[in-house]
């Protein structure tokens, strides 16, 4: 009998669950509903919402031509400018930004006004990061650092204090490495570890499970940043690590003998998809 070890932290985090529940609640209230960008990075969830009448808006400029209704700000948050445009649009606005992300907005807005140089460690094209840098003082823009090369090449030609924050789903070990590079440059660095505690727990648990199994399955949407990082972590510990969106993406190697299979999932993965993968492994492996 194959042993399946599923991470306790797998699946929706607090912020994602809150955002998704917000949309479903608004559906029950009736009226036209829009989300500014996909509410979360999971095509299965987004498709279900679209089937229930929810429309995804690609850009703030598209709001002007829409039928009146409710616009929901997704869990990743938006910039200060976009938030203001929404408030002035005449639409009902419901803010489903993750509270942990809202905290980062407050930190960078306050510290940039004080004159601190803001550094955001994360993926510069990720919507959460785009939103965060949009809360900085326009006269004191942020710098985004993604990797060691960018951290090593960073140069601040004055004596300003630096405030470092992180994308909530960034890998903790990598965050610490990049911060250390900045500190070694001799700058006055104020580090605010804004990686969500649920993210850290999820990554630590995934690593521990991956070290002890014959196969590790990471479930999540291909666009999910936190799921990609889980895959990177698990791949280092288990050379047979699979990245799947649903059970339909899971390929079986009949020649491979498996005794223990580990399963984890990104923060945007619904419980039912995790259960379907569990059952598929139990029946077919």
Question: Can you give a write-up of this model?
Answer:
With 285 residues, the protein is an alpha/beta fold. It folds into 3 domains: 3-11 and 197-284, Cobalt-precorrin-4 Transmethylase, domain 1 (3-Layer(aba) Sandwich), CATH 3.40.1010; 14-97, Rossmann fold (3-Layer(aba) Sandwich); 100-191, 4-hydroxy-3-methylbut-2-enyl diphosphate reductase, catalytic domain (Cobalt-precorrin-4 Transmethylase, domain 1), CATH 3.40.1010.20. Helices cover 40% and strands 18% of the residues. It has 10 helices and 12 strands. The chain has helices at 14-29, 43-51, 80-87, 99-113, 127-133, 148-153, 172-183, 197-210, 225-237, 271-284; strands at residues 3-6, 33-36, 54-57, 70-73, 92-95, 117-121, 143-145, 162-166, 189-191, 215-219, 241-244, 260-265. The strands form 3 sheets. Strands 1-12-10-11 form a 4-stranded parallel beta sheet, sandwiched between helices. The termini are close together.
């Amino acid at each position: 009998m194959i042993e399946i070890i599923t991470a306790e932290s797998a699946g929706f985090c607090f912020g994602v669950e809150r955002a998704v529940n917000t949309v479903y609640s608004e559906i029950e209230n009736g009226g036209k509903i829009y989300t500014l960008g996909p509410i979360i990075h999971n095509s299965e969830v987004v498709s279900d919402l679209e089937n229930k009448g929810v429309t995804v808006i690609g850009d703030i400029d598209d709001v002007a031509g829409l039928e009146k209704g409710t616009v929901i700000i997704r869990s990743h948050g938006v910039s200060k400018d976009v938030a203001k445009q929404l408030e002035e649009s005449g639409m009902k606005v419901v803010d489903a930004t993750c509270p942990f992300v809202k905290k980062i907005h407050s930190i960078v807005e306050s510290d940039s006004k004080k004159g601190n140089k803001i550094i955001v460690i994360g993926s510069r094209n990720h919507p959460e990061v785009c939103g965060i840098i949009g809360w900085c003082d326009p006269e004191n823009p942020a710098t985004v650092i993604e990797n060691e090369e960018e951290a090593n090449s960073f140069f601040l030609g004055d004596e300003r204090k630096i405030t470092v924050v992180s994308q909530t789903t960034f890998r903790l070990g990598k965050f610490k490495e990049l911060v250390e590079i900045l500190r070694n440059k001799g700058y006055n660095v104020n580090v605010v570890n804004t990686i969500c505690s649920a993210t850290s727990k999820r990554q630590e648990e995934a690593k521990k499970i991956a070290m002890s199994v014959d196969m590790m399955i990471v479930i999540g949407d291909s666009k999910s940043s936190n799921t990609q990082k889980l895959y990177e972590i698990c791949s280092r510990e288990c050379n047979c690590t699979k990245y799947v969106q649903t059970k339909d993406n899971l390929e079986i190697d009949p020649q491979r003998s498996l005794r223990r299979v580990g399963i984890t999932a990104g923060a945007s993965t619904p419980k039912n998809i995790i259960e379907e993968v569990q059952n598929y492994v139990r029946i077919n492996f």
